[in-house]
Design brief:
alpha/beta, Nucleotidyltransferase, domain 5, 5-stranded mixed β-sheet, 12 strands
Amino acid sequence: MKYAIGIDIGGTKSAIGLITDTGEVVAKTSIPTDPAVSPYVMVERIAASAMSLISESQIDTSLISGVGIGAPGPLDTRSGRLTVPPNLPSWHDFPLVQEMSRLFPFPVKLENDATAACLAEKWLGAAQDADHFVFITISTGIGAGLYMHGKLITGASGNAGDVGHFVIDPAAGECVCGQRGCWEYIASGTAVARQASEKLGREVSSKEAFDLAAAGDLQMKELVDQVFRYIGIGCVTLINTLDPQKIVIGGGVSQVGEPLFQAVQSYVSAHALNPIGRKTPIVPAALLQDAGLIGAAALVHTEY
């Protein structure tokens, strides 16, 4: 039995786990991603937490095959750096792999977090039967992992799949990236909460907005139906561009469940260009809470 240290770095917390070569999470923990300290301090905390997990689990370090890291982009996997991740401003141009390699006696691999989660869905999740699929995560933002012709498509610098900045509706307002009407600006969980709060004149979470829509609130139903349509538009764009066997959707917004998948499947069936594309299954991710950790470990345990 071999193990990998999986690290999933997020804007608010960083998860650390020990994962076997069969994908079992044998131990895990998480620590706040503290914006008040430098990334150098944070990686020291992450490494210390990982080494504590190894010690507490009584695993011989000779059984650790490596460290896999899923981190928010933009990044540069060639140099092992985070470049300009918007939710981690103090980590801009940070040499993550170099610093992790200094703290760990194991090989270190880095990929975009959505790419790592995509690999997890191929390894153990909803895409085990697919050689051509797209994994989309819809939560705070929207990102994707691309798996085509039996391998991950990561791009020249590791940033392939930044689909949240497809322009869907230029009339909808300005995204943080400077373009107008980006997919994540109008259809992410953050977007739902923002638009619901504007409509109701008070602070509304995305979950409350979806719950109100399900209970019959007409304003919220109109908003949610529009969001489902926007998600459908993005999926059709990906189907027309990449011709996948299936699209796997994860992230917090996917927890809405059947109403989302039914609406998106219906939109795809009506609007994908190719008759084959209109039949593309739109399915929920199988790996939920531990997807980031399993994906990070998959960077070590699988050939991709």
